[in-house]
Request: fold
Amino acid sequence: MPDFTANVGSGSSTGDMKYHLQNLLDSKEKQLQQAGTLGQRVLAQQMELEERIRQLQEADMDKGDDEELDTEATAKYRELAETIRAWDAENAQLSSAFGNKRSRAPSLANEPIELPREEPERNKAAGSSAAQSRRAKNAAHRADDVEFAFEIGSGLLTEVRRLQSLLAERDKAIQDMKEEKEDLEKSVEALRTALRQQEQSADKFKEENWNLEVTLQELRTQLTDSQSSASRLETEHKRLT
Reply:
């Protein structure tokens, strides 16, 4: 149950309490909306990330294991890394509304990606020594490509897990805020019930007071009549004697 007595003094009126409780309800409603926005954005990011991973995997399947990453594939990996950095910034801004500085899992956007270095083509040399040099160079490039693909895959997996963790935190925050909102609504309902009881009591007292006023007026009328009768009798008695 949220403590609102700190902001409502002993001399505060019922209207002050209702006003403060309504402010708390409005605040929780706003936080719920922000949490929903965060959840929708994270889900959209996860779907986009999965789609990009699928596209990259399909592009890799079209190539042989011995082929190097071309310029287009490298550009796509770089673009994905930049997109993830933008997501990180956006999610940090949205999650700051909850007031919690949560520790985040390592993100692909925070890990520098070292792409394979392009080396200028060497002039072809005749003879077996030149062929051996080319084979050694291709083998080195393939090793770099495999290592690069492994780093990208590991980073993307980490990013998916991080987004899932963020969604779980969002769900927990929503649940906590719903519980707090329910407690506030119960407090407001209890206050409304007390107000209704006070109004009913006030109406009852008004009715009783009115009845007493009517009775008092009737008694005053009777007293006046009695006094008039007594005065007439006294006058008549004096006249006869």
Q: What stands out?
A: Residues 14-121+147-194 form one domain. The radius of gyration is 42 Å. Residues 1-10, 100-127 have pLDDT under 50 and may be disordered.
